[in-house]
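Continuing the batch. This is chain 6 of the set; chains 1 through 5 are on the previous pages. Same settings as before, nothing changed between runs. Recording input and output for traceability.
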Amino acid sequence: MGLIAVPGIPALLAPAVPEPEWESVADLEAITLTSSEGTEVSVIPPIGWDTRNVGTGQVFQSGESTILVMLYDREGRDADALAERLIRAARLNGTNTAFTGQVVSSADGTLTGRACTVVSSDRNGPCAFLSDDEVVVAVRSLGTADDPAAPIDDMVASMTGRQR
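Output for chain 6:
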């Protein structure tokens, strides 16, 4: 028996599904993110920012500054090739990313990768793509001219990965 695709149904149901609530970050408690395959990465968010879960990622927001942390399962793929693919996909949506040449890592060394700069039509900031054997973690910080992007060094350093 085959499946019948009805393209309009997801668009009709989307307004019925509530968006996750924003929560305030009050202390230095780590937030654990879980990839689709079950790999966990913990990160300590900036105090005083609002946050919400977006599936395999987390959004942090303060004013017009936003930090987005997303997990992508490697599924045997090369980490650099996957990062390049994610950059190309974002470019189709109007966001350009360029690697800076700087090497970054979590303080415990479980995640390592490359720093970058991200630019969209009205926002820009630092970013990084880190990985271990299981996941690639994309960290993007975006701000405006009036509310600049937050540095991501402390957030990246706070990350710890746990294999599934």
